[in-house]
Amino acid sequence: MKKIEAIIRPEKLNDVKTALSDLGINGMTVSNVSGFGNQKGYTQIYRGQEIVSKLLPKIKLEVVVSSARIDEVISSIVESSKTGKFGDGKIFVYDVADAIRIRTGEHGEEAL
Predict the structure, then answer these.
(1) In CATH, which of 1.10.357.10, 3.30.70.120, 3.40.50.1240, 3.40.309.10 is domain 2-111?
(2) By its UniProt entry, which Pfam families does this protein fall under (predicted)?
């Protein structure tokens, strides 16, 4: 099993959720996060003062899938979240040793 952690633009969340749903991915965790990369933040004016914000709002999406489906899930996330501009995000892939469904006690891919 693999855990996919994707940092994406907030406005792309619904597109990614729809794409994953079309693949039959039913479970995911979504978190609001802040960060920066090549964008280096932005400048805004607040009450006449210039404020530099180095952290941009992002969405962190976490999904655990079977190892056999990893390529199709990653491709789906990339295609549905890509704008071609700086700040599109990153995807990280981790190995998952085990998964346990608390309600039933199922282990491994059965718990997904």
Answers:
(1) 3.30.70.120
(2) P-II
C-alpha angle 107-22-90 in degrees, rounded to nearest 5 = 75
Burial class (CB in 10 A: 0-12, 13-18, 19+), 105: exposed
Q: Which residue has the tokens 């210039």?
A: 50
Cα 17 from Cα 23, distance rounded (Å): 10
Q: Cα separation of 8 and 11, whole Å?
A: 8
Write out pLDDT tens, residues 47-74: 777 766 777 899 999 999 999 999 999 9
* Element housing 78 (H / E): helix 70-81
What is the sign, positive or negative, of the torsion defined by CA atoms of 102, 94, 96, 4? positive
